[in-house]
Every structure is written in C-alpha cells, then in structure tokens.
Amino acid sequence: MEDDRVESLFAGVEYDIMELRMRESLMQRVMHGMKTHLVDKFEAFVAKQPNKPFLIYDDMIYTYEVVDDMACRVANIARSWGLKAGDCVAILIQNEPSFVYTFLGLQKLGIVVALVNYNLTAHSLVHSISAVDSKALIVGSGKELLDAVTDVLPDLGKLPVYVQGVSQQNLPAGITSFDDLMRDTFPIAFSPSVRSGVTLTDTCCFIFTSGTTGNPKPVFISHLKFLRNSFFPAFLCNHNQDDVMYVVLPLYHSTGLCFGIGATLVAGSCLALRKKFSARNFWTDCRKYKVTTFAYIGELLRYLVLQPKSELDGVHNIRAAIGAGLRLDIWNEVKERFKIPRIAEFYGATEAYSGFASLTEKPGAVGRLSPLLSKFDPDKKVLVRYDVATAAPIRNEKGCCVPVKVGEPGLLISKVPDDLLNKKLYKAHTKETEKKFIRNVFVPGDVYMNYGDSFVLDKEHFVYFHDRLGDTFRWKGENVSTKEVADEICLLPFIEDVSMYGVPIPGHDGKAGMAAISLSPNARLDNKELQEMYAHVCKELPSYARPLFIRHIPMQVLTGTFKNKKGDLAKEGYDLDTVKDPLYFLDHENKAYSPLTKIKLLNFIKSKL
C-alpha cells in the first residue's frame, strides 16, 4: 500500500516539472500585461499601428484606425444619452464588425456592456435585458433580431431601443435607428480620464449563463477577469501580434469574446470573424485569411471531421487550435487529418474562479491535478465523490467531502478566494451565488465552488471531462437549463408536469433535450396538442433549448424532497426497445411533435438536428 502511494505521488512528475516551468515563464508575461484596461490597450495599438488589419469580416478588412473611428462615434452617441462610467447598456448583436466597435465604444466611457444571447426571444429575452438594469438596448442588424425585439417592445417599458442596419423610415414606432445616429456623429476621441475612476476589479461586462435554476443569469465579469481570460491564448500557444485568430463562436460567450476581441487586443494581432460557423467553408476561410490560430468547442471539430475528406484538409497556416470539449474519440483524427501542430484544450466556467489548461497536449485531457501541482494551486481544485441522483457531494461520517481515487468520477470543486467570499457571482440573483458554494468541505468554515461537472483522473493525474451533472446539460455549444425549459412547457394548458433532461445522440457532442410530460386531468395528447406544443417551444425557446424528444408518461416520479426523479428516464432515453411510453420527435417538416419510429429515429439522427 505504501509503495502504491509513493508511486502515485511521483506519477507523471516529469509533466509536473514541465508545466510548472511553463506556468512561471508565461504567467510573468501575462501578469506584466494586466496593468491597464482592455480599451487602453486598444487605443495604444491604434496609435502604434493605425493601418494594421484589426478585423477581417466577409472579405472586408477593418484597420485599427477604422475600428477606432467607429468606436469613437459609439462613445459620443452614448455620451449624448447622458450615460457615464458604471451605467449598463445591453447589446443584442450577432458576430459582425458592429459588435466589436459597439463594445469598444461603450468601453471607452467605462460603460458596462451586457452581452445578450441573440438566440433568445420572448420571456427569456425580456428577462435578460431587465436583469442588468440597462439604460438602453442596442440591437444588431437582421430581420430576426428586429422581429424578436419588436415582439417584446411593450414588455421593455420605457427602455430606449436602437437598431443597427436600418434607417428610421423603415422602423416601427418606439425604435430608433442607430445607423442614422452614427452617420450624424463625429468620431471625436475621448480622454481616458472619463473612465479614470473605473478600476480593474469593477465590472467590465455581463455574460449570461443558463446555470441550473431557470432564466439566463448575468455573471459579473470584471476588467481583471476579462484581461486574464484574454491572455489565455498567449499562455497556451504564444498567440502574438503576427497571428490571425479565426473565431466563429458567438461573441456573447466567454470563449468567443475573450479569444476574439480580447486576445486580439492584448497581442495587437488580427481577428478573422464569421457570423456563423460553416463546416463547408471553415478551411477555405482559414486559407483565404491566412489564419494561424482558431478557437473551438468540441462540437465544432466533430462537424469538421464529418465533412468529406479532401487533399486540402491539411493545407493551411494554422499552428494552434484553442478551445474546450474536444473528446478523446476524435482527438487524434483531428490532429492528424488536419495537421494541427498544437491543440490547446482547457476547461472553465463563466462564473468560476479557476479551471484547467492542458499544457502537455495529452489527448482528451483538459489538464492535470497531481499532488505536486496541487501544492502550487492557489485555487485548491479537488475532485470529490457525489450522488449521481442529486449531483450533491457525498460526505463521510465526519461530515467532510471525500476526494475520489484514480479512475473514479468526481465532482469538481475549488476553494473560493477569501477576498471574493462576500461578492455576488450574478447580477440580481443573490441566492444563486450561495447555491454554487459548498461549505465546511474539509474543515469547518471553508468554502468551495461547485462546478457541476464531473471529471476522471488517470494514473498520471491527467484530468478528463466525464459528465455535466444536475439540472443543466450542454447542446450545440450552449448550456441548457432544464428548469427553464420545463417551466416553459408547463405553460401549455394540457401539461401538468415536465421532467426535462439531456440524452446523448450518436455523432454529436453534449446532450440533446428530452422532456417526459404528464398531462393535466382529462387532457389528451392528439395532433392538435402536438402541433401546439411544437409552435410553443419554437416561439418561446432558442433552437438549442427545444426538446428534440418527448416522452408521454402517465405520472411523474418524485424524490423524497418532491423533485422530479429523472435518472431512470435519462438512462432509458429514446430507446424504442426499452421505452413503452409513447415517444415523439421535433418534426420541422410537419411542424409538430410526431410519433417516433425506428426508421424515423434513424433518419432524424442522420439529419442536421
């Protein structure tokens, strides 16, 4: 037993030494750069390299000077509204140049920017805008965005709404053209003194996370946290001023925002931006724009692998891919087929204080958690045993959490820094902060954050993602709150209760939504109700949150605390050989939830979903 303990202690020690050396050298450089705000770095690069390409979009090149010109116009417009440092403005803009210069223009005045998910509609959209006490809403171009905002305009009260891409004569009453304002505004620069009172610990922006308890929650992102995350590409793959970073991930999320705008600005490099991911055009874009680094989520790379092989697969200038969620089953194929010299995998959460980063490029691993590295880890990350049914930590006879052994799935927790113990994670969601914390974990009074994800350690202490726990699952690169979806479906008059959970689908990362519904007394589930349910979820929920499968169960099974018991339902999924209850699938062709058969299931899985 003693020999096993010693062997475990020194397993992979050569990786530990290499990682500690890399951490030291890279973090010195990173910390040196975290002394000024992101917008200060932008303005410094504008002065230093005004004619250098800053942004490439749809074959158009925007130099640092051009983007600054537009950002100055935005700042002057916001100033004319009477806004000042610390005020909040919500933006609902897709991946396009206006997102970049609108964000930077508001930052010039020290305005907090709320990055609203542009897939949201109806109640979720209103909730997100209202939760941050925004003084104005700026909407990007596109009919879908305009329609979504017009539909909820009465619910926004007196909030001023400005829309890009449309002149005033083509807008409904109550909405103002932002393009007209930009045209009539001079690009006069502001002195940095207008934001001199904004510290690095103040809020830079709000990034929304679905979390585990319903509506999207705005997470406080400080200037310091934004800067730290923006330096990640430099930390992981030496992203520098000569690089071109390709980003197809949404800019309203941490990875797209920090690896897109953030990484570009801290390095003085160039960002190649695309509105939406296209597997067919991905490598063409990379070759055309001479991309050297790109940001990914695992599902993106899986779509690329599913594309027909081409002799051009490895023809590009890419030296590194940086992202999260690349699973072991396709890791080697991605690296070898597409000839990517370095894959830099990491793991983190929007509201978290810590995470993992793979510096050794072990296939499938998100990082390391060895005894030696743990000694130098200020966040004290630990994997502990948990109850599969409740996703809660299991405690021993002394009331303490129990670290897992090698090969045993464990819930990730990390120690909350003392100076952050009394700070909220979410705006307008005080109680939700406490739900993320676990107290008296190993000793009385200590506090750890619960990440809600489980991981597994191998014998060399490499860490591998295992599963998303609790009431959240991930689909199409988005977190889906089971409670939010269930609450929405329950608004239908013929639905009594809903158990919402995620189910795996072959060939896809994450889990797709499945809802087990029980009907109200005397209600029926015929074509009329199935069409009504389809129309309701398509109107009220973003595409990634809509249940792909419906299971009609006689009644819900509850736990001792009256929560829906979903473990067995999730295990059975949509297996037609196991499930005897009626099953339905999201049938866009017939605009209804249609009965599921084996042939329809096979065709459904083969479709783009």
From TrEMBL:
InterPro entries: AMP-bd_C_sf, AMP-binding_CS, AMP-dep_synth/lig_dom, ANL_N_sf. Coiled coil: none annotated. Keywords: Fatty acid metabolism, Ligase, Lipid metabolism. Pfam families: AMP-binding. Residues 42-370 form the AMP-dependent synthetase/ligase domain. SUPFAM superfamilies: Acetyl-CoA synthetase-like. One of its GO terms (molecular function) is long-chain fatty acid-CoA ligase activity. It is an enzyme of class 6 (ligase). The keyword S-adenosyl-L-methionine does not apply. Gene3D superfamilies: 3.30.300.30, N-terminal domain of ligase-like. It catalyses: a very long-chain fatty acid + ATP + CoA = a very long-chain fatty acyl-CoA + AMP + diphosphate; tetracosanoate + ATP + CoA = tetracosanoyl-CoA + AMP + diphosphate. Its EC number is 6.2.1.3. One of its GO terms (cellular component) is plasma membrane. The keyword Lipid metabolism applies. It comes from the Eukaryota. GO terms for biological process: long-chain fatty acid import into cell. Belongs to the ATP-dependent AMP-binding enzyme family. This is long-chain-fatty-acid--CoA ligase. It comes from Elysia crispata (lettuce slug).
